[in-house]
Specification:
alpha/beta, Nucleoside Triphosphate Pyrophosphohydrolase
């Protein structure tokens, strides 16, 4: 079974529309060395099940400027990060933003900015797999967020000031060895959001 290439995962016409309507955004290319179990997890989702062509990473900002973070039952204790969720093969990035926001927070949002995308190459020994994260800044009102989908296993939600996002990225990069590949994968979108919110 062969992994899809970035060209298989990315609809370049869609990216052009996102950049035209919501800002040019950044476009980064990164490699992440993974442990066998982590690589197998993503291989199962992207290749075997083929139920996603990437993910959206959500910077949900309320009127006072604070940004929403979440944590899940199986995360390292005390760690909060930006919400994210898969983009289905037949789903647009914008539709995934709305669906994932609704499932994880029950909030109605408007898309403010396409912050950018990160094209990953996951590596385990000689094996390689492509993946892509679409990072979006969205605006919410002052409604209280709450998970709508219990399957998400979200155990906490909190708002932080934008300057905290960079600290979260550093925390993700500093996780202990059993979490280091996950942290290396999850940190870059936080860097991208921190850059965008500091402009």
């Amino acid at each position: 079974m062969e992994a899809p290439s970035l060209a298989d995962l990315i609809d370049e016409a869609e990216v052009t529309r996102l950049m035209s309507e919501y800002g040019p955004g950044q476009r980064w290319q990164l490699a992440v060395a993974m442990r066998e179990t982590s690589f197998a997890f993503w291989w199962r989702k992207v290749v075997k099940k083929a139920n996603r062509r990437g993910e959206v990473v959500l910077a949900i900002q309320r009127p006072d400027g604070k940004v929403l973070l979440h944590t899940k039952r199986f995360y390292p204790p005390g760690l909060f990060r930006l919400p994210s969720g898969g983009v289905h093969p037949d789903e647009s990035v914008l539709a995934a933003v709305e669906r994932e926001t609704r499932e994880e927070t029950s909030l109605a949002v408007t898309i403010d900015r396409f912050v950018g995308m990160i094209e990953y190459e996951f590596r385990y020994r000689r094996r390689r797999m492509s993946f892509v994260s679409y990072v979006c800044l969205v605006q919410a009102d002052d409604s209280r967020p709450r998970p709508a989908d219990s399957g998400e296993e979200i155990t906490g939600l909190k708002y932080v000031v934008p300057t905290e996002i960079r600290r979260i990225a550093d925390e993700l990069r500093s996780l202990p060895q059993q979490w280091s590949d996950w942290g290396a994968f999850r940190a870059p979108p936080h860097d991208m959001v921190a850059d965008a919110l500091s402009e």
